[in-house]
Amino acid sequence: MRPFLALALRCLDGVTQGLNVIGSGLILLLMILVGVDVAGRNLAGAPVAGVPELVTLSIVAIVFLQIPQALRAGRLTRSDALMSWLERHSPLTGKWLETLFDLVSMAVVWVIVSTTWPIFARAWERGEFIGALGDFTAPTWPVKLTILIGGTMLILQFAARILRRWTLPPETEAQG
Amino acid sequence: MTPFEIGLIALAAMFLSVLAGLFVPIALMLCSFLGVWAIKGTPLLASKLMALAANDAISSYFFGVVPLFVLMGFIVAEAGLGRDAFDVANAMFRRLKGGLGVGTVGANAIFAAITGISIASAAVFTKIAVPQMIRHGYAPRFAVGVVAGSSVLGMMIPPSLLLILYGILTEQSIGDLFIAGIGPGLLLALFFAGGIVLMAIFTPGFVGRPKGAPEPLPSRVLLAKGLPIATLIVLVLGGIYGGLFTPVEAGAVGSIGALLIGFALRRLTWAGLWRVLVETGLVTATVCFLIIAAQMYSRMLALSGVPAGLGAWAAGADLGFWGLMILYVAIVIALGMILDSSSIMLILVPLMLPVVVPMGVDLVWFGIVTVLAVEIGLLTPPFGISVYVIKATLDDPAIALADIFKGAAPFALIMLAVLALVIVFPAIAIGLVPGR
Fold this sequence. Notes:
The complex is a heterodimer.
Chain A: H1 2-44, H2 51-72, H3 81-89, H4 91-126, E1 129-132, E2 136-139, H5 141-166
Antiparallel strand pairs in A: 1-2
Chain B: H1 3-20, H2 24-40, H3 43-56, H4 61-64, H5 66-78, H6 81-93, H7 99-112, H8 118-135, H9 140-151, H10 153-156, H11 161-170, H12 174-202, H13 204-207, H14 219-241, H15 247-264, H16 270-304, H17 306-317, H18 320-336, H19 341-356, H20 363-377, H21 385-394, H22 401-424, H23 427-430
Helix pairs in contact in B: 1-2, 1-16, 2-3, 2-16, 3-16, 5-8, 5-15, 5-16, 6-7, 6-14, 7-8, 7-9, 7-12, 8-9, 8-21, 9-22, 11-12, 11-19, 11-20, 12-20, 12-22, 14-15, 16-19, 17-19, 18-19, 18-20, 19-20, 20-22, 21-22
């Protein structure tokens, strides 16, 4: 059971990191896009069609692709004053409180993911797009898809926190 | 229960759960969800509000450029421009008492003009300035204090990510906000420098006993070090105010400029660039996720009518302008002890806007006051982001977290003095802004 669990957790981290890489690539692309737009406007006298639309879409994708890794790396914002106090004085209470928080987090993200599903389905079926017809259009469903994927991975990473806390010895709780 | 009461309870629940250690964005989302559910009586509407916020809240061109400002900060750091700024500033101030400390402040002021985030400044100057100062006989506690204190300049002197956030929240011109940040930023740098010289003279026990000034640099070297930074500053600020690109586009142009300079100087490697990109991604995701959550929360608050009620209460309570500002600053600084700067701003500003707008407060000036107050929180225990970044970057068990907080304390006091000046003399901030 235990080796299987460790393998599953490693796979989860691998996928999480993969999403992170895609997100980082998107940031580079964003920089180039805006740069080309500014250059085009000032040097060629014409803005590049579609840059604002693409920027608007990709920021959402960037955030949801990277948020699971942000959690894994311990970067999600929190105030740890009470937690570190509990760790010193009553570690078990701290463990249970952390677990409760992780469960709550899973539920909250689940609400977002499940309600985004119909939004994604509609965007997919109706071929929703942003931009102006005849000039530049981009479909919106890929972005909704990244919310679904990123949200699901975020839930799984919260679950992984619980698993690591209770089942695995501390040393396998790897570097963030 | 009236929606107003529900809103107040949700507000209290949010503060409590954040204090208890729930992730801040999750706490905001949870309380918004439960709040809307209680107000509207149906979970369906509440979850729709959440999904809509997740899909739309940051889906705009303004937010699209947030990662580019973070990226610019990290690239200039990776390209070694921080060390250049430090060398140049030291050459300028080497004859002063406490010169290395003043040099660090100067370098931070220069560096702030090419970066928009405090944590980039904190990380860079921990690596460069702290070892140099300790080597020259400064007390370690003072050395880290100087770095912590002067890192806040990164958020005051334009470009600044916090000012952009504020501009988006309150629909103020980001260009105006940037101009308004210059005066207080320079004043802060001046006060820091003066404070360091005074401390070096009157409290040598705190500062340490610096021995000798660093070697002077030949002017050819100085020029070679100063030129890339000067180029980048001219490119970013000149481009904004010359009308070549908007403040939101400056992040992209600055990143590209820093990339080109870094590669031209052979200081940037592909591996380094990739590391910076990943780091940028994590910071962006954290900040933007927080923004999404804060949007849900402010939509919930708007539904409950708490901000409007608060405005009516403030108008009726006869706090007056001064009472209100003192109360506001106190709350911001108190929150700064437990939260990071963007969280505080995203939580408080939507709450405060309906209160201050009827009083005819200049929102650009109010933004500068907010950012200054929020940045004091970066230096105050137990939750001071800048201090944590310094601790993590330092990686030296001999310097404890408490040492950094103690070293930073005089600088937090100086910031408080500058904040008071800006509140009493708004012209420091908005004097330069056209049309005010």
